[in-house]
Every structure is written in C-alpha cells, then in structure tokens.
Write a structure and sequence with these properties.
Blueprint lengths: L3 H9 L4 H8 L3 H7 L3 E5 L2 E5 L14 E6 L8 E7 L2 E7 L12 H4 L1 H5 L9 E4 L2 E4 L2 H12 L7 E5 L4 H14 L4 E3 L6 H11 L5 E2 L6 E5 L10 H13 L7 E6 L4 H4 L3 E4 L5 H14 L6 H6 L5 H8 L3 H13 L3 E5 L1 H4 L4 H14 L7 E2 L2 E2 L13 H11 L5 E5 L3 H4 L6 H5 L4 E6 L11 E4 L8 E3 L8 E6 L13 H12 L10 H11 L2 H5 L4 H11 L1 E4 L2 E2 L25 E6 L13 H5 L12 E4 L1 H7 L5 E6 L4 E8 L7 E5 L39 E10 L29 H4 L1
Helix pairs in contact: 7-20, 8-16, 11-13, 11-14, 11-16
Bound molecules: iron/sulfur cluster.
Length: about 750
Amino acid sequence: MIDSSSIKQLAGHPFDRRDFLKVLGWSGAAVALSGCGNTSIENGKETVVSYVEAADYVIPGVAVYYNSTCAQCDAGCNINGRVREGRVLKLEGNAASAINRGKMCGLGQAGVQHHYNPDRVREPLLRKGDKGETISWDKAYALIAEKLNGVSGEQVAFLSGAVSGHLKVLLGNYLESLGSKNLYVYEAVAPAVQRAANKKAYGTEMPRFNINKAKVVLSFGADFLGSWVSPVHFSQQYAQFRKGVDGQRGVLVQVESKMTLTGANADRWLVVRPGTEGILALGIINALGASGVTLSGDVAAAVQGYDKARVSNDTGVSVEHLDKLVALLKERTPSLVLAGSAAEGYAHGSQNAAAINLLNQVLGNVGKTIEASASVPFPQMIPAKGNTAALKTLNDDLAAGKYKVLFTYATNPVFTAPGSMKFKANLDKAGFKVAFAHYLDETALEADLVLPLDSALEDWGTQVPEYMAEGAQINIQQPLMEKLHANTQGMGDILLTLVKQREADKYKDFADYYGYLRGSLLTIKGALGSGGTDDDTFWDETLTSGIIKLAGSAEQLSGNASAAGLQLPAAAAADAQYSFHLIPSVTAYLRDGRHTNQPWLQESPDPLTTIVWDSWVEIHPKKAAELGIVEGDVLEVSSRTGSIRAQAYLFPGIHPDAISIPLGRGHEALGRYAKGYGVNPFQILDAVFDQETGELALHETRVKISKVGQRIIVVKDEGAAGGKPEQRRIALSKSTDQVKLSEEV
Ligand code: SF4
C-alpha cells in the first residue's frame, strides 16, 4: 500500500534524471512487443526492463511529477507533468509560478497531443524529387557541412520563431561561427507594434500591467483573457479585479470592432468603426480635459479637434456612451488602459497605440497600474522577439536570390505569410533549405532536408518569458519521459553538433546539450543567488523547482507619453468595390495555426460561436439580412490578393462594416488533424504595413463577399446541429433558395 508520505517522497526524490529516463523509457514500438514493462533506447540498443526489477522509486500505478515549461506559446507558464509508468499523462500549472500560479489554458493542456501526435516526423528526411528519403543523422550533418562549404556568412540565413535562453545563445554562436548576421525572428501574431509604442511612452517595451490593481480597465481590443501576451496570468489578475479593490468591484470596458473572449466578459462592450480606436482615445482625453482634468499644453493642443460630436461621428460610439465612459474613468481611479492587437493592426497602428498610451498618462496610471518590469541580468538569454517586419526583409532577400543556405525553425511562414508576399515562391530561390521540424508543415514540405525534433516534453532547455510577472525568472525545460521516437533530436543538441563542426575545440567539453546547459547554469550559479550551494544541490533544486527566480534588473519606467507627432487619420473612407474590413481573429486555442493538428483544439468549441473543426465568416445580422445571407451560406470572401470560401455565421458582436474569419485553420499540411479543415485567411491578406514599425497591418485588408449558392449546416456545440463533423450535410447540388435546413439535420 502506498501512503501519502511515500508519494511525497517519490515526487521530491533527488535521483539522477538521466537514470530516471533510462529506466522509465517506454517506446511506442515496445508497447506492442512487451505489453508491460519498460524499454530504454541507448546507443541504438533497446532494453526491456520489467517493473519487477524497476528502481525503488518506480511503483506501477503511482504517478511522479516533474516541473517544466509550457512550450505551446511564449508566455512561459510553468508546468507540472504527471508521469506514470514512464508516460506523461497530464499537464498542470506549477503552483510556485508567479506567471500562472498553478493554472494553465486549454492550449497549454493540449501540449501532450503535440508530444504523442501520430504525425510527428521521426527520421531525417532528404528530398528526392517530391518525396522524402530517410537518411541517417550522420549523413544529414555531413550534408549540411558540405552545403556550407565555400559559402560566405552573408549567404546563410536562419529563420526562427521567438527564441530565448540557452538555445538563443547557442543559435547566436552558431551563426557567428558561420560569419552570418542573418537571424530573422518571425512571429505572425506578435505584439510588435505595442512593444514599440510602449518603449516610446513608458521607456520599456513590456511593462507590468496590473489589472488587479485597477478599478476600471478600458481595453482597446486587448484580448487578455484569450490570446494577448500572457493570458493565464491576466486571467488570474482579472479574477482579483472582479473581487474588487477597496471594496469596489472592477469594471471592464472593451472597445473593439469584433468581439473577443475578453469583450464577451466585459461589463460594457463598445463597438467601434474599424481603425478608429486612436480617435476614440483622443476624444476621451479631450472630454476629460473639458470636464476639469488638467492636460499639458501639447496634449491639449493634440486633442483639440477631437470633440465629442466629431469623435462619435468617426467612431460610431454615441456621445452618451462617451460621456458615461469619461465619468467612469474620472470616478474610479486608478484605471488601466490597454492597447491590443485589434487597435494596432492598421497602417496607423502605432498612432492608435500612442494615443491609447497617452490616455494612460493623462489618467495618472503610469506608476500605479503600469509598473516597471524586470529582466534577467543576462542579455544574451533575453528573448529574440518575433515580428512580421523580419519576414518582410527576409522575403525581399529571398526574392533577390541572396541565400545559398536557409535554416528554418519554430515558424511556418509558408502558412502564415500574407498571400501578397508570395513567400513560397521566393523561398524556392534559396539554394539549400534545412527545416528543423516536429511535423511536415507547409514550410518543412518545401525544405531539402528535414531534421526531426524532440517534443518539448522530451527535451532540455531554458526559456526566458518576455512578460515577467514578479521579479524575473528563467524557466527550466526538462524531459518528462524518454523520447517516443529513437531518431529525433533536441534542437539544442542539433545546434551543438552544428557549432562543433565549425569550432570543435571551443565546445569539446560538452558531450551534449544537457551538459552544455548544466555547465552554463553552474557557471552563473553565483549570479543566480546560489553561490554558496554545491553544484549537485543547485542542479537538483533547479530541476525540482523548474524555475530560477531572480530579483532581476529593474527596467526604467518613464511617464513620457507625448502628444508630439500624433497624427491620426480620419476614419477610413468607404471602399466601393471592397466594402468590408477583414478582421482575421486570433483565437485563444489556435493562435497562428501552429497547433491546429492537436485534436483537442479542433474539438474545443470556439468560446463565442461554439463552432468546431471548421472556419466561418462572422457577419453582423443586419448586414446579412441586407444581403440575403443566412447562417451556413457559403460565402466567397475576396480581397485584392485572393479569395477563400467559408460558411456564414451571423454574429451581433461585430461592426456591420466588418467581417471576421479566425486564423489557424486551412492547412494544406501539418498532419491528419489539421490538413483540409477550414480556410486560411493569411492567404488573402494585402501587403499593408504599419507606417512606423513596418509590421504587417493585419486588419487593413478590405474584402467583398458573395454567396456561392451552397449552404451547409454549421458544426457547432449549440443548437440543433450538434457538434460532430459527421453531422455536417453539404447541400452541394442545391441552390441556396432550394435548401431546406430542417431536412438536412
Ligand atoms: S498561456 Fe497557455 S499556452 Fe501559453 S504558456 Fe501559458 S499555459 Fe502554455
């Protein structure tokens, strides 16, 4: 019988992690062979170890728990994995984390489906025409060395998703060894405009936003409960905010053109004409000034023309609502104003963000609900943050045929680049393309060589979050179980092997990435506050905790938001040909689509529409009625760049001049759970960029819509249609007028 103290001992047992992995490994192939027991794959040999002879800390049926880091997004939530008989079964939040305090989001929970996904790449693949031929790792590494031979650093580029910690250090070292400065860090959905605007207004890119200390939160399209920056952290702050400060329950006002999950939770949801968020912010400042709030001279001058009548006319927000909002902000202090991606996705996105940040300053929020953050005192580990401007530069270079060797890692631009960029065609001009990949996604399919990666649940690493909740922290990633597939490798191990090809002597002391990581952290042990601890104890404690907490270096916060240079354009004129604004929505589960092959995420009903396994076009019911559109009508959505088709969903939470399609679906690759489900709005995005940062203006594409004469039953978790894809009936042969929905259910 196992009592609770034995279980506690197991959870905290300081045994060697490598022995644990050796003993507890249980490969998929061996399950079929042995039925029970464990296998270990070391040096190509597979050893079956019966649980009869298992180490004393292995008790069949009793779980052990390991702390690591969620790799499903960059928020850096700390996790705790439940492992039984060598298999990771469930992920939970690490209660000691200042970021997520024991909680996780649904996207994070689905991380086990990334690990166990049947479509993972399992062997190095070399392109032979349209096919991939399995090759050995030795041959793959030799091929890379051969392709780099005689190639100058300027002719080599590395395209990566956001990367931090020791992986970033090693990646930088590798590029340096090649003489290349061409690191492009691309994230299709990133708060890049916000970072730049924050830097100007507050002196730091990512200050700490204290929702829990505010009595009013006015959010301009920041979906902080869904997908914005660090949603699990903000959800917990939001719960405190709702309980109230000084006995006053917090009031949330959400301003946006398409309702987000956060908008659906707001006390007041104000719909604005797309792109006019900055005008509204200046109108509020003007009204605050008129009601007695002191404005500095330059601010008063900048908002002079934004009287209520004009602002109401431009934004569509009534004067009555404007007055109520101003009264609320005056009455309840401190408040917090947030600028989200919905406000920033325009050619004047930086201006919108600047106006919104200025409102924070006028309200006196800087230093109260907006505070200085901290960063780790090791600049080389600080995240290389992704944006879309990097992809634009790379795309231009590819078009010019600049690169002979291109590496790609943790990003899928063939799927996420706006169609107007013609990225796939330009990628073809790179001489030799190497993809480090978990799956054959759209970008890996274009590669000449695909190198299969360990999952985050079987690999080592460190991660530094961009948004720090308390002090600073370095997150530890460690394997929760032995590798599922013998022939995958960790990204750190791959980079170490590659850099050794160039500088063998420098890295000769590191047999593998584990050794590199351990050695590097021990080197800075003193700076991490553990100078007096012996190496083994420090290492055991670090792995047990999964987090290295630091006071960190305090960022300097300034309240210097200035009205200088604020030039907001008037509300966009109507486009006679393309009359709708397209809002590509970023959902909490699918984000940019890199995890769409995790079936839990496909199966989880969208929180607002309850639709599963498919894409949809949100359209306002009044506009739909004008155009004779009903739910399920298949619409062709056309921009100047391209067109896609999806079912109509009538939704009152959207501005009548806009339609919205969620991002993430519409894959042509990425495996059985992603391919062929829904449509990809990235394909039809026009090449419009924020004028200050060069970021893709995600919300600037204009579209027209037309019915194609088909109607389908929307697969959703509400209403009569039910939630199973099999229940869908496509009326392919009938015109819209002929379809009788009741017959099809
Ligand atoms: S927000 Fe969700 S997906 Fe992102 S790190 Fe946290 S738990 Fe993981």
